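Narrative of activities, Objective 1.

The group set out to show that a structural description can be obtained from nothing but a protein's sequence at a throughput compatible with the screening campaign. Below is one input-output pair from the validation batch, recorded exactly as produced.
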Amino acid sequence: MATLSRRQFLTSTATIAMATLINTDATRAKAQSSRKLGFALCGLGNLSTHQIAPALAKTKHCRLAGIVTGTPAKAEAWKAQYDIPAGNVYSYNDMHRMADNPDIDVVYVVTPNALHAEQTIKAAQAGKHVFCEKPMEVSVERCQQMIDACRKAGRVLGTAYRCQFDPHHLECIRLVREEVFGKTTIVQAGFAIDVGDPAQWRLKRALAGGGALMDVGIYALQATRYLTGEEPVLVSAIETKTDKIKFAEVDESMVWTTRFPSGVVAYCSTSYRTGGIQNLRVNAERGWFELDPAFFYDGNHGRRSDGQEIRFPEIDLFAAEMDDFAQCILEGRPTKVPGEDGLRDVRIMQAIYESARTGRAVSLG
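Output recorded for this entry:
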């Protein structure tokens, strides 16, 4: 039997040690990437009940681990339906207790707009990552407070912009960036709904911060930004209100134009008074393409000026955005929908409101 020299022995030992280390790291990385992060839903309204909770069951990297609510009856119903441990149920006033609960990794804030900062800051201080529904908050200052709190805690803050995970919107982004129809010249986008119940929180300025623009107009605004890949430099807006009782505190309808550095102009509209507006169209040098409907939870599709359809298999957009956020945390990479993106939209919306109020164009430079 051959005898190893000291050099051969040391080399062999080092090789084995390195292989063991690599295998250990690979095993640890695989275990980490396959781990499901525990999500706590903060706010158990219609969106959480009918969209987010069902979507969590479809995700690969997330699970419903806890809830935050101010309604005891809802807490009991959710505990029973989703087998949530009593220790993972919180009120808005005792979110600090999450600091002692390793079962919860992420808090998904799904409450009225003006409560987002308070709850995001509490979650971050408890050591939890935060995924926040749009709009991020009702002012730039509150958005910045959310960003600062998560940064200080070393936690990731994401904004729930589900359309950025829709294959139809991703295809439109590709068509623009690759200049399939030449350079973009004009973007048109609109989203309007009949808001319904006049007693709901969306019509109360103290909770919503605004009306149609903040709620559904933000989809059109966001689309113009991620399609062009630019930030607007000038905005001009007009607000109309036909029902001054129902919409006494918030905007009913708004139309606005924005100009981008490249020269692209966007024409956008939103309303709480009518349905049937849910479109996105890009006009370019050699043609056009559009989605109609563009902003629904499902069923979005479109067409191109060359006769081709824009149609992909349906996916659950809520599951897609939560899985991506979880992967960003597990893999230590940035999210494409950070808090800073939410702040930018709020800043632009505040400029739109200023323009509508003053009758003058507002510079964003």
